[in-house]
Amino acid sequence: MPRLTLRVVAAVVGALTLVAGCGGGDDDGGSGKGRRPAGERVTIRVPADAPTISAAVSLARPGDLVLVAPGVYRESVRIGTARITLRGLSRDKVVIDGRFSRANGIVVSAPGVAVENLTVRNHTQNGLLITGSAKAAAGLPGASGGYDTGDEPVTLLRSFLVSHVTATRNGLYGIYAFSARNGVIEHSYASGGADSGIYVGQCKPCNIVVRDNVAELNAVGYEGTNASENMYVVGNRLVGNRVGLTSNSSHQEKLLPQKGTVIAGNLIAANQQAATPEQADGGWGIGAGVDGGSDNRFVRNRITGNRNAGLVITATADIPPVGNQVVDNTFTGNGVDVGWTFPTAARGRGNCLRGNDLRSTVPDRLAATAACPLPAGATSPGGTWTAPAAPGGIPFTEVAAPAAQPQLPGAATKGPTTVPPVPDLPRTEDIRLPPMSLLAANARVRTS
Length: 448
Prior knowledge:
Elements: H1 3-15, E1 17-19, E2 41-46, H2 53-59, E3 65-68, E4 71-73, E5 77-79, E6 85-88, E7 94-97, E8 104-108, E9 113-123, E10 126-131, H3 134-137, E11 160-170, E12 173-178, E13 183-186, E14 189-193, E15 196-203, E16 208-211, E17 214-215, E18 220-227, E19 231-234, E20 237-239, E21 243-248, E22 261-264, E23 267-269, E24 286-291, E25 297-299, E26 302-304, E27 309-314, E28 325-327, E29 330-332, E30 338-340, E31 352-354, E32 361-362, H4 366-369
């Protein structure tokens, strides 16, 4: 056995902190990590018990907590053991730094894992990747961002939690759930994503909640691609990106078309920042966009100050948008509040509006001519408008550093986090229109 491994094992055997708790049905999977009494949970401290996060994770068994002291960790962490918690003692001072040379900060490929209270920065692909795809976990990016997994069968990772994570200056996505379901991304911050800050792709039914996050200074704040059914994006601050939010279908991923996301109670504002990474399709000045997605519901969002358009509905190549509903949202100060535009081959159907506070639409009078409810087959009218010229962007490596972010309460004292098999899903009727100040204390970019 190598001397380093002997030293790590000796340290763990001598210094592990035992935590009482209830173990699940998982064993150590034949990993050779040794036998413990059933139900025993252990806290593995970095660097006290293991010199690196990766070494600690390799020693962890289901139910264990890996607790990381402040420091800059120059490693890529892979978590393949179910139901472990990886937690930093300080969100801003526990930093996994890719130095613009490593692809991913953390890759989670096992169910029931919680990642909490730390920062992932400076990676050429993703800050944090949660996936059931072996090809994605291996780090094989597609030609235009994301992961084209070829003929690999769809395998959905079963459950996950991301909480109080800061992801900044990453070359594809900050926080990326791909081919995963039954999860929550909450109280996190994403900036400097060259594609998007937070991304959910290729799941059906997703059973995923993205809530109370801040995404700013990204090419796109939040992106959901082929993410369908029980997909909730609620109470987020999507301000100061090039595009605030998209919900779209793509042939690059499986499980298309995208259907059935609830987008509610978000502040989507001022998405025309020049000091952001420039995406290949050149989108800029758009609050929210539906691109070939269907049956999505925009409910009680505040969409304001987006120079091109507040909400755009269009088609992806041959995939029309069908049955999207825009209900009880407030639009102010946008170039166009709501704009629908379709290629001839893929005109939208059954898209409708009701109860919105808005001032301009393309085509005109959509609130009257496309009022909800509409028959699913009713053709949606389309039009065009003059978009403002988009400024050039900056490399993701040059995006401004984030401000200090709120800490996970009790990070040093609470035990491992139990991730539920399926998260509680929000009740849309309980979600209110957000104030302009939503999560402003966590943000660098202001709305005015």
